[in-house]
Specification:
By secondary structure, the protein is α/β, with parallel strands linked by helices. It has a single domain, classed as Spore Coat Polysaccharide Biosynthesis Protein SpsA, Chain A (Alpha-Beta Complex). A four-stranded parallel sheet has the order 3-2-1-4. α1 links the parallel β1 and β2. The longest helix is centred in the first third of the chain and has 12 residues.
């Protein structure tokens, strides 16, 4: 089962980096992170690029959009938007810390 972790953000690079690192430390490796950057003034793109992890995908809006639109942007970009089966979506904000993922049987 794949996890799609959706992280819409606007600035908050310190919080975003913490949330991303808690996902990257998981023993479970079948995940993706979608960072939907709502026209941040901070260098979110540079940070994501520096991670050099193909499981982390970065998208930026050209201009500020309402929060719900940014959530929808993240959802539309996730692998799970293409095929709903075997996908577990985690909607989170940048203040989240992820405890270890565990498969539920």
């Amino acid at each position: 089962m794949k996890f799609s972790v959706l992280l819409p953000t606007r600035n908050h690079l310190d919080l975003l980096s913490y949330a991303i690192e808690t996902v990257r430390r998981q023993d479970y490796s079948d995940w993706e992170i979608i960072v939907s950057d709502n026209s941040s003034e901070e260098d979110i793109a540079g940070y994501v690029r520096s991670l050099d992890d193909s499981r982390i995908k970065y998208y930026r809006t050209d201009q500020f959009v309402p929060v719900t639109d940014n959530w929808n942007n993240a959802l539309a970009k996730s692998d799970g938007s293409k095929s709903i089966s075997n996908i577990f979506k985690v909607f989170a904000n940048t203040k989240c810390k992820f405890n270890p993922f565990r498969e539920v049987t």
